[in-house]
């Protein structure tokens, strides 16, 4: 409990302090690590990292697909192609 109280004291002082710089943040984090209130690092297990990488890649592909559709629709609009089907991205 004593450690948690010390940590909350740091947080409340940080919120009230007008000095919010990277240097002051680094000093506070170093002090919290020194007294054992924060772990040095946490590395996710390999399975979790692989899943994150897969999800990130899938999201990038979805973003690229969306961007391509938006570019095509913008070109059609710019050329005033009004006879395109209403749902041009679905199979008939």
Keyphrases for this structure?
92 residues; mainly alpha; 0% strand; elongated
Number of self-contained structural domains: 2
Q: List the helices and strands in order.
A: HHH
Overall body shape: elongated
Unreliable parts: none
Please state the CA-atom Rg, rounded to the nearest Å: 26 Å
Mean pLDDT: 80
Q: Can you walk through the features of this model?
A:
- With 92 residues, the chain is mainly α.
- It contains 3 helices and no strands.
- It is 66% helix and 0% strand.
- It starts with a helix and ends in a 14-residue tail after the last helix.
Write the layout of secondary structure elements.
Elements lengths: L1 H15 L5 H13 L11 H33 L14
Short description, anyone?
This protein has 92 residues and is mostly helical. It has helices at 2-16, 22-34, 46-78. It has two domains: 2-34; 43-80.
């Amino acid at each position: 409990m004593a450690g948690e109280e010390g940590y909350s004291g740091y947080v409340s002082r940080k919120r009230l302090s007008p000095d919010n710089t990277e240097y002051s943040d680094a000093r506070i984090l170093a002090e919290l690590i020194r007294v054992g209130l924060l772990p040095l690092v946490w590395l996710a297990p390999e399975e979790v990292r692989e899943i994150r990488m897969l999800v990130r890649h899938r999201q990038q592909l979805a973003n690229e697909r969306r961007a391509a559709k938006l570019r095509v629709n913008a070109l059609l609009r710019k050329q005033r192609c009004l006879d395109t089907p209403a749902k041009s991205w679905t199979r008939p």
